[in-house]
Design a protein that fits this description.
Blueprint: H1 2-12, H2 18-32, H3 46-70, H4 88-96, H5 107-112, H6 134-142, H7 146-149, H8 155-161, H9 164-177, H10 185-191, H11 200-212, H12 217-226, H13 235-249, H14 253-262, H15 265-268, H16 272-284, H17 289-298, H18 307-320, H19 325-330, H20 339-351, H21 367-372, H22 375-382, H23 387-395
Helix pairs in contact: 1-3
Length: 397
């Protein structure tokens, strides 16, 4: 019986896997009758054993012949001259050794193999393409954060279409030619990947315009390094931005260059927060035009600061600490400090009865010494107390 089943399995092993044939036979057998091979009695002769196994052989032969009739068009016949003494285990081993997994192949066979696709057709991350894209590899080496770029729409596909030698390298060389440091190239591309698609003539025209407005080469390099989107603005748009700040703040050309060079994102950021902060300083906080001008020249960041932070700090300085407008305008760096830092130090001085902010008093405490001094200097020179006393007082707040 075992030999007959083996021959039938060999005949059909290229059509269906061995497990599939066995599963089909078992499924069909389960539908008909549950067959249990009888145990051979110890005193039964060989002829009787073969006679008992004959129904089993016929049963499996009928089932497999039906399967053969259904797939007669797809069968691949093998030689049937298999010796009767072969066991299923030896046949399976022979089939398994036909194509071993670790077998060495010739160069011709290796060349005939079909390789896997080098680049996935679609992916949610640029990580899948780094090993296959020279452009991405070079950008990573420059320090570009691909995880930030892949979150922006259409930027990932744009980077994959770029050829490094043709598209990327000339733009990087241009950035170096205007003075951008090598360590800042990754930052520039990360925050403005569109610079890799800009025309080189347009980039050069924008740099020439800034230099025509008497920005030095060092200023241009610093501005591009800190606000890379400047290179995406047309000459006309850059000119309009410079004119806006000069007109709104009443500044001359030198002062306008000064604040723009120190805060270059004024040229490429939105103008709405700037307009709103100017109205807040004039209407809500009550500063005069010359005071606003002085504060902006000292701290250009006031133009883009958070409106809520400006009003919160001013309210505490003016209404709680009783500091007048002209003293706040004299030291606008106070708006760069944290509100909690100002509040804690004022309350500590108030606890020690040293919260005097009038210049006419002998124990006058300026806003500069209040906010800009380190904790140790503030405690020993302003509050005339120890640092441990200040830390204990902070725990009571």
């Amino acid at each position: 019986m075992a030999s007959s089943c083996v021959q039938l399995c060999i005949r059909h092993r290229l059509v269906l896997p061995l497990k599939t044939v066995a599963l089909t036979v078992c499924t069909q057998a389960r539908r008909c009758h549950t067959f249990i091979r009888p145990r051979r009695p110890p005193d039964v002769s060989g002829m009787q054993a073969k006679y008992q196994q004959r129904p089993c052989i016929c049963f499996y032969s009928n089932i497999i012949s039906k399967q053969e009739n259904k797939e007669s068009k797809q069968l691949i016949h093998l030689n049937d001259d298999v010796s009767s003494n072969e066991s299923p285990t030896s046949l399976d081993q022979d089939a398994a050794t036909r194509l071993p997994a670790l077998e060495e192949i010739s160069d011709e066979e290796a060349a005939s193999l079909t390789p896997y696709p080098s680049i996935p057709p679609a992916s949610a991350s640029l990580r899948e393409y780094v090993d296959q894209s020279e452009t991405l590899v070079k950008l990573v080496q420059l320090g570009v954060n691909l995880w930030k770029l892949e979150q922006r729409p259409n930027v990932g596909s744009m980077l994959l279409r770029l050829v490094f030698d043709k598209d990327v390298a000339p733009r990087l060389l241009f950035l170096k030619s205007i003075g951008v440091d090598d360590s800042r190239l990754g930052y520039v591309v990360t925050h403005n990947p569109l610079v890799l698609t800009e025309d080189l003539e347009n980039l050069q025209a924008r740099v020439n315009y800034l230099k025509s407005k008497k920005f030095t080469s060092e200023n241009v390099a610093s501005m591009v390094s800190r606000a890379p989107y400047i290179l995406n603005f047309s000459v006309k748009r850059l000119d309009n931005r410079l004119g806006f700040y000069q007109q709104q703040l009443g500044l001359n050309a030198a002062n306008t260059r000064n604040i723009v060079a120190r805060l270059p994102r004024l040229l490429c950021g939105s103008l709405e927060p700037v307009k709103e902060n100017l109205k807040v300083c004039e209407i809500e906080l009550g500063f005069k035009a010359n005071e606003i001008q002085h504060m902006v020249l000292a701290v250009p960041k006031i133009l883009t600061a958070n409106k809520r932070k400006l009003t919160q700090i001013f309210d505490f300085l003016h209404n709680t600490m009783k500091v007048p407008h002209h003293l706040i305008a004299k030291f606008p760096q106070v708006f760069n400090n944290k509100f909690l830092r100002i509040k804690e130090r004022h309350l500590f001085l108030q606890y020690l009865e040293r919260a005097h902010y009038d210049p006419d008093q002998s124990s006058y405490v300026s806003l500069e010494r209040l906010t800009s001094s380190p904790d140790y200097t503030f405690c020993t020179e302003v509050a005339l107390a120890t640092l441990e006393d200040f830390y204990v007082f902070q725990k009571t707040l």
